[in-house]
Each structure stands twice: as C-alpha cells, then as structure tokens.
Amino acid sequence: MLVAERVSRSFGALRVLDDVSLCVGRAEAVGIVGPNGAGKTTLFNVLSGAYPPSEGRVRYDGRDVTALDAAARCRLGVARSHQVPRPFGGMTVFENLHVAAAVGAGASGERAHELCLRSLRLCGMLEVANRRADTLGLLDRKRLEMARALATDPQVLLLDEIGGGLTDGEALELVGIIREILAGGVTIVWIEHIVHVLLQVVRRLVCMESGRIIADGDPQAVMKDPAVIEAYLGSVSM
Fold it and tell me: Which residue segments constitute the domains of the chain, with CATH numbers given?
C-alpha cells in the first residue's frame, strides 16, 4: 500500500535518513519506535510528501508518488497527524474538520458533512463539535488531530506520537479509536514512545536508529533484539 524504496534524506551535510526501505500492506498496523533523533518523523515527512527524499522513491497503491507534494498525496489517501496538534484555534472543532474534508479530500456539500460527522463520532467529539479548538485540553486536541486526518478520508493514516504528553490512561483512551479506524480498513503506521500502548494495536514493529531500520518484524521478537535493546529499550517507559 505504502512503500519507501531506499529512501535517504539529508539536510546539508547531515544525513537524517540513510537508505531506508519499508513496505506497509493494505489494512496493516505497523508501529515505529526508536530513540530521539532516529529519523522517525523525517520518514513520515518523506512518506507524506512534506519533504522530498534526497535519494530513493515513495510508492502508494502501486503508483510512484515521489514527485507529489503533501496536498496531492492527501487527495490520493495518505493522511497524517502531528506530534504537536496544529488546529485552527479560532475555528470550532467542526469547522476544523470541514476544512480538512474540503481541502484534504476535495469534498463539498453533503459528502463533506458526512466526513465531518463520521470523524466526530469515531473520535468521540460530537459533544465538543461547536467549541473553539483553542479551548480544548490536550486529550481533546489529540482527538481533534486524529479527527482532522480522518476527515480527509484516508486509506493510510500516519500517526506521529499521538500519545505524546498524555498519561497512560489518556493514551489508552485513544487505542479504542485507533482499533476502530483499523477495523474500517485504514492502514495505520504509528510512531510512539509509549511502547506498551503501541503494542495494543500493532502486529508489526519497526525500530530505527541513526536514520536506519535496525529491526522489523513481530513486536515481541523486535523488542528482544539485542540491537534494539541497546539502541532504544533501555531509555523507554515500558
């Protein structure tokens, strides 16, 4: 469904991604872990079209999308959330979703309205639909970040530390939502530092270090990999 083929990304002399290859299948749930600076968010930026790769290609649903920007990829079905929520603070929750449906999905009229309502229901935000986004607490802003991505009607959803800054209990509240998204046939790729929360959803785990993938496979096997333990697990809350 979404493929990175020998992708590298440099910023001047700094090589942040180094020959990364990753293939994510349709309706698969893949978790990505790794220490800070491993290149995880940069990989998302390349997959979503925010950054072009310095080398390599990105494919989506069999199509080479390397030259397409983030807006074009979103229209095709690749959506993402950000670690720090980025709502339009002066707009209501519903208005934020309507912008996502109109711009991200190219929807209008009844179709845009349906996408907004579906996202509100799925993310448990119907009760706050008419509240201004800048009045929301962190958990609801995280919900809104997911809801905006869902309002673009994605086939692939890239979640960047959606649990970041939340308590374990709050992060677990999001697990049910993400499971329901997955059950609806959406492919999930999820970067997360709260590993035990991540493992409630994903069936495949990828570990990155220094811009490279050092392990990819069954989550329990990856977590026991000596290279992963050395690079990452010693510094993570389990």
Answer: 1-77+154-238 (3.40.50.300), 86-153 (no CATH)
